[in-house]
Design a protein that fits this description.
Blueprint lengths: L31 E4 L5 E4 L1 H10 L4 E2 L6 H5 L12 E4 L3 H13 L4 E4 L15 E4 L6 E4 L4 E5 L4 H9 L3 E2 L10 H7 L6 H4 L6 E8 L4 E5 L4 H7 L7 E9 L1 E2 L3 E10 L3 H13 L5 E10 L2 E10 L3 H12 L6 E2 L2 E4 H5 L11 E9 L4 H13 L5 E6 L2 H4 L15 E9 L5 H15 L17 H8 L3 H11 L16
Parallel strand pairs: 4-6, 5-6
Antiparallel strand pairs: 1-2, 3-4, 7-8, 8-12, 9-13, 10-11, 10-12, 14-16, 14-17, 14-18, 15-16, 15-20, 19-21, 20-21
Helix pairs in contact: 8-11, 11-13
């Protein structure tokens, strides 16, 4: 039984990229219809597209080219978009050329790393997709305790390279997620209460800003930009590499899933709240309400990353509470745990999510959550990510990530196949969320749904908004990078 496993069959992960190595020489390209940043129509001259292709080491894919269809697909199959051009960048030089081309033509611009944006922000119709997927690789320096990651890399690559040196840092819970998008928006994960957000562990970013300049952002260089990149998403440019601080950690953790029948869900949730709120940083406890063929269940995923004997003792009151119907908590390689939910959220399915931060959880809130969940059988799960710990020990204005006081993140997640009716399911999820949202304060931008407005994002940045607007106005005054948790520049 895997936590968050909703679409078990019928979906395969995107295969590899067999078309690497095409020459990026294009001939006889006709004028190409495209979309501007403002949504207007534009005709790109064939000769300028050819010159752009010739300037790249990676491939420039146009509609009809081999590999175009494979490259345009993103993780959430609900977004079936067709960019006018896909620049498959192989390094920072290609990224600079793509940014220059996009800016000079005022082209609608999407930046894609892992392509896992729930809201489909890494693709577009008629614009350019700056595709970082060919830029993959992680190098670990065990002496310096640093991991250097190319911006198209996935979380599984980061975890894997670190683990063999007995090192780790916070990454998300699904190994095929892109590291760059996750880190730029914050980055919650099983080690987050111990090490902080993924972005709290960044020592430096390499970035190409909207004017095509290549900069390094760290505490010592372009510190204003460094602040904004930790939680401000893709607003300021295309990050081409990330340097992470990594930490010694036993590569085997004590982890697994404990499940109870729904009849005791109220007691389990109350017990969970008390335990989770008083938990040491070494443990991450993520509760969820989900549907199985025989009915609803309540489960807690446990990850204890400290000493195992201590963990066994600490976890006992949780594992012996009530009568669990399933308990597979045991020593397990951290990298195995990190990919344990991968197949349940395979690329190509249709996914929708809503989320909000909980800064308190009262008994009546628990009752409401249970009530709302039961109203719509077999549609979505409700999950809680565990906050507090190291997340909270960073001041809300120390990075652009605003929601440091979250005790839990409440998420409402649904996944279905392309044959189902998206609109009907989304409408049901929205109706449920209308009853849950009053329990929340603020939301996690990386799990935002497509209908989130610019005003919603602005409000969520709270006290950090003015500083973000200033940075945006400095580094991207034309809002070239707008397909993200967007902060428009000052007019
Ligand atoms: C299955 C699944 C599991 C998840 N689990 C977690 C989790 O455990 N913890 C968590 O915190 N989040 C989680 N998320 C949310 C995740 O953080 C976001 O979806 C994140 O945006 C994914 O990054 P990506 O690079 O794959 O996305 P992409 O779709 O490639 O990009 C997302 C956004 O970031 C921008 N972007 C990406 N790379 C760059 C770059 N190099 N430079 C500038 N802008 C860039 C894009 O333009 C886009 O706006 C999960 C998402 C999915 C789909």
């Amino acid at each position: 039984m895997k936590r968050r496993q909703f679409i078990g069959t019928g979906l395969a992960l995107a295969a590899g990229w067999p078309f690497r190595g095409l020459a990026s020489v294009l001939n006889d390209v006709g004028d190409l219809p495209a979309k501007t940043l403002a949504g207007g129509d534009l005709l790109l001259r064939g000769s300028s597209v050819e010159a752009f292709a010739a300037s790249l080491r990676g491939d420039l894919l146009l509609p009809g080219h081999d590999g175009y269809d494979q490259a345009r697909h993103v993780w959430n199959g609900m977004f079936d978009k067709r960019p006018a051009l896909i620049a498959r960048c192989t390094g920072a030089s290609d990224v600079r050329r793509a940014v220059d081309f996009a800016r000079e033509h005022q082209l609608l611009t999407a930046v894609r790393a892992g392509g896992h944006s729930f809201s489909g922000k890494s693709t577009c119709d008629g614009g350019i997709m700056i595709d970082l997927q060919p830029m993959q690789g992680v190098r670990v320096d065990p002496e310096a305790r640093r991991a250097y990651l190319e911006a198209g890399s996935l979380l599984g690559q980061l975890d894997h390279e670190c683990a063999s040196f007995g090192l780790a840092t916070t990454a998300g819970t699904v190994s095929h997620t892109g590291a760059a998008g996750l880190t730029l928006g914050g980055g919650l994960g099983r080690l987050g209460r111990r090490f902080g957000l993924a972005c709290d562990n960044v020592a430096s970013f390499d970035i190409v800003t909207a004017d095509g300049h290549f900069l390094r952002a760290s505490d010592d260089e372009n510190a204003d930009l460094f602040w904004g990149l930790r939680g401000g998403g893709g607003n300021f440019g295309v990050v081409t590499a990330i340097e992470y601080r990594v930490h010694p950690m036993d590569p085997t953790v004590l982890a697994g899933y404990v499940v109870w029948p729904f009849s005791v869900a109220r007691d389990v949730m109350r017990h969970y709240r008390e335990i989770a709120l008083n938990a040491p940083d070494m443990v991450n406890l993520a509760i969820d309400l989900h549907w199985e063929p025989e009915g609803p269940k309540v489960g807690i995923e446990v990850c204890w990353s400290g000493d195992h004997a201590e963990g066994e003792a600490w976890l006992k009151p949780l594992r012996t509470f009530g009568k669990p119907v399933h308990d597979d908590v045991a020593p397990v390689p951290y990298v195995t745990l990190q990919s344990s939910g991968d197949s349940g959220v395979a690329a190509g399915g249709h996914y929708y999510v809503k989320n909000g931060m909980l800064t308190r959880l009262e008994d009546d809130g628990i009752d409401r959550i249970l009530d709302v969940f039961q109203r719509t059988p077999n549609l979505y799960s409700l999950f809680f990510d565990h906050g507090g710990g190291a997340y909270q020990r960073v001041a809300p204005d120390a990075t652009a990530f605003p929601n440091r006081d979250m005790l839990f993140l409440l998420g409402c997640f649904g996944g279905w196949s392309s044959q189902d009716n998206d609109d009907e399911k989304i409408a049901q999820m929205r109706a449920s969320w209308r009853d849950l949202e009053p329990l929340t304060r603020g939301f996690y931008t990386n799990l935002a749904e497509p209908d989130k407005t610019t005003a919603g994002y602005r409000e969520n940045y709270g006290g950090n908004l003015e500083r973000l607007i200033k940075l945006k106005t400095k580094y991207d005054p034309m809002n070239l990078f707008r397909l993200n948790a967007n902060v428009p520049p000052r007019a």
